[in-house]
Structures are given as structure tokens and as C-alpha cells.
Design a protein that fits this description.
Elements (H helix, E strand, L loop, with lengths): L15 H23 L5 H11 L4 H28 L4 H20 L6 H15 L9 H25 L5 H24 L8 H21 L13 H12 L1 H15 L5 H15 L7 H11 L9 H32 L9 H5 L10 H25 L4 H14 L7 H25 L6 H19 L5 H15 L9 H25 L4 H20 L9 H20 L3 H4 L3 H18 L6 H20 L10 H14 L4 H17 L22
GO molecular function: transmembrane transporter activity
Organism: Azospirillum brasilense
Protein name: Putative membrane protein YccC
Length: 695
């Protein structure tokens, strides 16, 4: 894989928010450094580095990150204090135990896709920062661990206070702004779907779906900081999460409505067309006379009764109208929840309160296999460095081991961590001349803390501006950490050229080892990850067809929606791939939703329909098991007669809510699996299938 060209720092004009962030971060760092010096802690510059690491533009995120960092540091410190004395007599076993701790913590962190994962990742590499230097001097482990916790607590406290008191930027308003923008996008897409003159399905439409999925996933992650926020919105956390859950259903629901309108184009009754126009105006807020209750009543009146002679046209029309009813409910719920958040009321209306309690915790796609492999890669890198360190007796080998542990963890959530590690390595090398200038020339001439602050201000205030810019944050942080790491040599009284050179060589060796190990056994391409995501969805759909218990509401939907968002960026990076071009994760989501409905409904069905539905589920499950096993192909032809038989037998059953629910799901499943099938001419009284045609 080729190395991406390094782009210079952007020279765009300084914004007020960037300047404010830089000043606040520098103020917090200097306060932490002063307190650490005053307390006589062994490595005050670690407190300074912590203040920069914890700093962020949103005060709520700073506080949540601070909590996770405190707990993670304490956990890593406790692990080091437990392992080092017990294994002090065997350096080889001790380094292996420390590496295993890092690998296990990294594995756990990758199974949590929220900011909480930072806690476990930090617990992993903290044991490296404390434990590896103690391998050659285990008697100091307790003092080192205690000092490390104190220094980090000082940095966290200073960053939290400064960002919370000085012009704080709350998570709440930013989250609500994103929430409103996402809702507007969903409303616009809904109106396009309802419009009879809407654009045909294409790349632009698919990109809109993927963007909506990404936005909803990002809102979920952002909302995890809300309980730590200072704005009034933090009291509305339940309502915000309920609104996100309702918006998540808009993606498959609107895609399904588009599909049903395509199937029934030219065959819609005039009253249904009028209903679509009314619904379009209601979603856009263009007609105050059209209300949700009126729309629901009209939908109920127009819904066809499924009798013994009903065919796919009637079933598809019933499916469309049921989806339109759900669309009205979801948009009305989102409006009511948004109004509740805006009013800041302490209790929800009785109708909306259950929405905030029906919260699925299992909302993110998790890849245990890749998490395990990432942990193994970290262990391998640490083992390689430690073997060289112990074998050669290198005095700075512990620094190399520390850097390997840190960088194997930092970028492990990426498909290919190598470019990120490589960029950090390059900018760490670029920091060496600046660090040497400070350590060997500037700082030795300063004899007071105010002069030290004045000497550091030009460089760190400038870097703080670039840290505030997402495009340059990684590069600027690498430069800043490289300088701070070298300044920490002053803490140890070893600020001479030989120590400086040896320390920087160890840092480079550690980062380079992490890079090489990552390239050899951990880097994967975007196309590979996209296929893995698709197979995970297909495997879950196959499992749903064989489920014996009820499928939890919300769990599958949220995970598949998350996969749609994850796929969007990977498909863009993968480039033209024949198998990926044909993949449609949104359609897979619709298949799964209809299967879940069919599974829930069939448990209440009796009579001859039940075995036909069971056979259909088995055939669909076999198809998706084949897809997940890399046997790509279209659904087998025998599925169509099974669907016909299931519909015929369902239509013959006595009318009930569960019977209609099964018919609606069956019609949706047919359209999702065979989107090119259509009906005979509308004037024909009998329903039969035609050969597939091009959409």
C-alpha cells in the first residue's frame, strides 16, 4: 500500500473558536504543570501532556473523557502494582504478562464503540507506561504508579475546570443542532419519496441514505457525553435518545415506501394519490389543516381488506398504507419529542413515555474477530520489542516498549491503522529539532516558572490552533507530544544530548515496530472490511429465520443501521468492486425487518398457513447463509412459489391483526428479495407473476 502524501498544515485564517480553544488548553496545561512542580511530583510534564490530551472543544465531552481517563488510569495502575512485584524475578514472564494485559484491554475497548472504550484502552497502555520502566527496577513500582495517577488527576482536573468555566461550549446545543439538521434531511428525503415526480433510484439517493445512517450513528455516540454536560439538555437525555431511536426507523421505512410506490406506479387508486399529496404537505408543514389524526383515519379507510382471493397487488397496497401510517406516527413522535426537549419539561406525555423506556443497548455493530486479532497484533509487537530490549540490555528499551503498546492501541479501531501510525511517526521525527532546541538551548536558561511559560507559549499556542482543526489535529498532536515527551527528560534530570538522542531513538523504534507489526498482520483494505460487514448482516438475517424466541425490538434495526453508516465510507474508499456494487445494506435491513415481523406474527397463526411460512423462512435463511459463506447469488427460484403458497394460505385464514401483520411482512419481503418482479396489467382480475424486468 502506498504512503499517502503528507499535506502541509492549513494556513486558513484563525477563527475565534480555534484561538479560544488553544488559549484554554494552554492555560490548563500550564496550571497542571505549575501544580505538579509545586507538589514535587517526579514527572510534571506528564500532567501537562494529560491536560492537552483531555482537552476538547465541547465541555461535556471533556468531562466524560476525564471520568473515563481517571478510571482507566487507576485500573492500569492497579494492574501494574499487582503484576510487577509478583513477577519481578522473571523479566521475560513479566513483559509477557504486561503485553497480555494490553491485548485484553484493547480487545475489550474495541467491543465498545462509544467513548467509554477510551477507559479500557487507557487501562491497557497505562500499565505499559508504568510497568515497563519498572521491569529493571521493580522496587519503585508503587511510588511510580501513585505519582502517575496524581499527575494524570492534576492534568484532568485542570483541563476540566478550565474548559467548564472559561467560555464553555456545551454538548447540548451542538447535539440539538445536529439533531435538527438530521431531522430536516429525513423530512426532505421523505417528501422526495412521496412525490410522484421524485428522482429515480440512483447513486445520489444511495448516498443520502448512507449519510442519514452515518448521522444517526454519530448522534448516538455524541449523546453518550450528554449526562456530563452543563446545559439544560442533559436532563432531556431520555427524550433525545428516544428521538434518535424513532429517527432510525425512517431510513428503512422511507426506502420501503419508495419501493412500494415503484411497484404500484400507475396502479394507485386516485384516493391514495390524494393521500400522498396530503402527507407530503403535512411532512413539510405546508398545510396546517392536514393533521396526523386525519391522515391516520384516511389511511385506515383506504386500507384494503385481505380476503381469500387477495393477491400480491392488494398485499402490496396494504403494505404501503401500513408503512405510511408508521411514517405519520414516527414523524409525529419526533415532533412531539423535539417540542418536549425545547420546552424542557421534566416529564413526558403518557403516549411518549414508553418510547424513552424501550431502549436497546445493543445498537452498534461489533466485530469480536477483528478485536481479538488487534489484541494479538499488540501482543506480538510488544513481544518483539521486549525480546530485543531484554536480549541486548538496551537502557531505553522500556521507552520503545511503551511506545509500541501506545500506538498499537491508538489506531486499532481503524481498518488499516498503518497510515495513522506512519503519520504520527513522521511528525514525531519532525518534532525532534524543535524538542532539541527547547531542551538543550531554551529551557536551561530559564530560572522561573513565568519565564518557562513565556518560552513555551509561542509553540504551544500555535499548535493548539491546529489541534482544534480536525484536518490537522493528528499532525499537531504528534508534534506536541514529541516536544512534551522530550521535555519530560528534565523531570528526570537527564536533559543532556546523549539522553535526548537515546530517548528519541527509543520512541522511533517503538512506533516503527508498531507500524511494521500492523502492516504485517493487522492492516486490511476498505473492500475487505465492507465485505465483512455485509457478511455479518447476512449471517444475522439467516439466524433470524431460525430464531425460536421473539426477536428483540430495536436490536437488529439499530445494528443494521449502524452497518449502513459504516459501509458508506468503506464503499467510497474501496473503489469499483463488482460484488460490492451490487450490495445494498439498506435492502438487507428491509429484509431483516420484514423477517422479524413475519417471525413475530407467525407465532400467533394457526391453521395451514404456519407450515408454509416456516418453509419459506427456512429457504430464505438458507439463501442468506450461503451469502454469508461467500456463495454469492440471487434468491433461489423455489422461494417464489413458497411465497405464493404462504400468501394464499394466509389470505384464507380468518381476519386478525396478526394475520394482516404477516401479509404485510410477506409483501415487503417479496419486494426486498425480488425487486424487479411486477404485476400483470391493472385491469386483470387475477394476480400472477411476470418474468423479471429491468427496473
Amino acid at each position: 500500500m502506498t504512503t499517502p502524501a503528507l499535506k502541509p498544515f492549513s494556513l486558513k485564517l484563525l477563527s475565534l473558536n480555534e484561538a479560544l480553544f488553544s488559549v484554554k488548553a494552554f492555560t490548563a496545561a500550564m496550571a497542571a504543570l505549575y501544580i505538579a512542580f509545586s507538589m514535587g511530583l517526579p514527572r510534571p510534564f506528564w500532567a501537562m501532556a494529560t491536560a492537552y490530551i483531555v482537552s476538547g472543544p465541547l465541555s461535556g465531552a471533556v468531562r466524560s473523557k476525564a471520568v473515563f481517563r481517571v478510571v482507566g488510569t487507576a485500573l492500569g495502575c492497579a494492574g501494574a502494582i499487582a503484576l510487577v512485584p509478583a513477577l519481578a524475578d522473571s523479566p521475560e514472564v513479566l513483559t509477557l504478562a504486561l503485553g497480555l494485559w494490553v491485548a485484553v484491554c484493547l480487545f475489550i475497548s474495541l467491543l465498545d464503540r462509544t467513548p467509554r472504550s477510551y477507559l479500557f484502552m487507557l487501562a491497557g497502555y497505562t500499565i505499559g507506561l508504568i510497568g515497563f520502566p519498572a521491569v529493571t527496577d521493580p522496587s519503585t513500582i508503587f511510588d511510580t504508579g501513585l505519582a502517575r495517577v496524581e499527575e494524570i488527576l492534576i492534568g484532568i482536573l485542570c483541563a476540566t475546570v478550565v474548559h467548564s468555566v472559561i467560555f464553555p461550549q456545551s454538548v447540548g446545543p451542538a447535539l440539538l443542532g445536529r439533531l435538527d439538521a438530521t431531522l430536516r434531511d429525513a423530512e426532505r428525503w421523505t417528501r422526495e419519496a412521496l412525490s410522484r415526480e421524485r428522482a429515480p433510484e440512483g447513486a445520489a439517493n444511495a448516498q443520502e441514505r448512507q449519510k442519514l445512517a452515518r448521522d444517526i450513528t454519530e448522534l448516538r455516540v455524541m449523546a453518550t457525553h450528554l449526562p456530563y454536560d452543563t446545559s439544560e439538555v442533559r436532563w432531556m437525555t431520555r427524550a433525545v435518545r428516544a428521538m434518535q431511536d424513532r429517527m432510525a426507523y425512517l431510513l428503512p421505512l422511507t426506502a420501503g415506501i419508495e419501493d412500494r410506490l415503484d411497484a404500484l406506479r400507475g396502479q394507485l387508486p386516485a384516493e391514495v394519490s390524494a393521500l400522498l399529496a396530503d402527507l407530503d404537505r403535512w411532512v413539510g408543514g405546508d398545510d396546517e389543516d392536514v393533521g396526523a389524526d386525519r391522515l391516520r383515519a384516511e389511511i385506515a379507510r383506504l386500507s384494503p381488506a385481505i380476503g381469500a382471493d387477495a393477491g400480491w397487488k392488494e398485499a402490496t397496497l396494504l403494505n404501503l398504507l401500513t408503512r405510511l401510517r408508521s411514517l405519520v406516527d414516527i414523524h409525529q413522535d419526533c415532533r412531539d419529542l423535539r417540542a418536549h426537549i425545547r420546552d424542557g419539561k421534566s416529564s413526558l406525555p403518557e403516549r411518549l413515555d414508553p418510547l424513552t423506556r424501550r431502549r436497546s443497548r445493543d445498537v452498534f455493530h461489533l466485530d469480536a474477530g477483528m478485536a481479538l486479532w488487534s489484541g494479538f497484533a499488540a501482543l506480538l509487537g510488544i513481544a518483539v520489542v521486549c525480546a530485543f530490549w531484554i536480549g541486548t540490555g538496551w537502557s531505553s528499551g522500556s521507552t520503545a516498549a511503551m511506545m509500541t503498546a501506545v500506538f498499537c492501541c491508538f489506531f486499532a479501531s481503524l481498518d488499516d491503522p498503518a497510515p495513522g501510525i506512519r503519520l504520527f511517526l513522521v511528525f514525531t521525527l519532525l518534532s525532534v529539532p524543535l524538542a532539541a532546541f527547547y531542551l538543550l538551548v531554551v529551557l536551561p536558561s530559564f530560572d522561573s516558572f513565568p519565564m518557562l511559560v513565556l518560552g513555551l507559549a509561542p509553540t504551544f499556542l500555535t499548535l493548539g490552533v491546529f489541534i482544534a482543526r480536525p484536518a490537522t489535529m493528528g499532525k499537531a498532536m504528534a508534534l506536541l507530544m514529541g516536544v512534551v515527551g522530550s521535555l519530560s527528560l528534565l523531570d528526570l534530570g537527564s536533559g543532556d544530548f546523549a539522553s535526548f538522542l537515546n530517548s528519541n531513538v527509543a520512541q522511533v523504534v517503538g512506533i516503527a515496530t508498531a507500524l511494521l507489526v500492523t502492516q504485517l498482520c493487522r492492516s486490511v483494505g476498505a473492500a475487505w472490511s465492507a465485505r465483512r460487514l455485509l457478511r455479518a448482516g447476512w449471517s444475522e438475517i439467516a439466524a433470524m429465520t431460525a430464531a425460536r424466541s421473539g426477536i428483540p425490538v430495536g436490536s437488529f434495526e439499530n445494528r443494521m443501521l449502524d452497518r449502513v453508516g459504516l459501509l458508506s465510507s468503506r464503499l467510497a474508499l474501496a473503489g469499483p468492486q463488482q460484488d460490492l456494487a451490487a450490495a445494498d445494506a439498506v435492502n438487507d435491513l428491509r429484509v431483516g425487518l420484514n423477517l422479524a415481523e413475519l417471525q413475530r406474527a407467525r407465532r400467533a397463526l394457526g391453521g395451514p398457513a404456519a407450515p408454509h411460512v416456516a418453509r419459506l423462512l427456512g429457504a430464505v435463511g438458507q439463501h442468506f447463509r450461503g451469502l454469508s459463506s461467500r456463495r454469492l447469488g440471487t434468491p433461489p427460484a423455489e422461494v417464489l412459489p413458497m411465497m405464493d403458497a404462504a400468501l394464499s394460505n394466509l389470505s384464507a385464514e380468518p381476519r386478525s391483526a396478526e394475520r394482516d401483520r404477516a401479509v404485510i411482512a410477506l409483501a415487503g419481503l417479496r419486494r426486498a428479495l425480488f425487486p424487479h418482479l411486477t404485476f400483470t396489467a391493472p385491469e386483470s382480475s387475477s394476480e400472477s407473476l411476470r418474468e423479471p424486468v429491468t427496473a
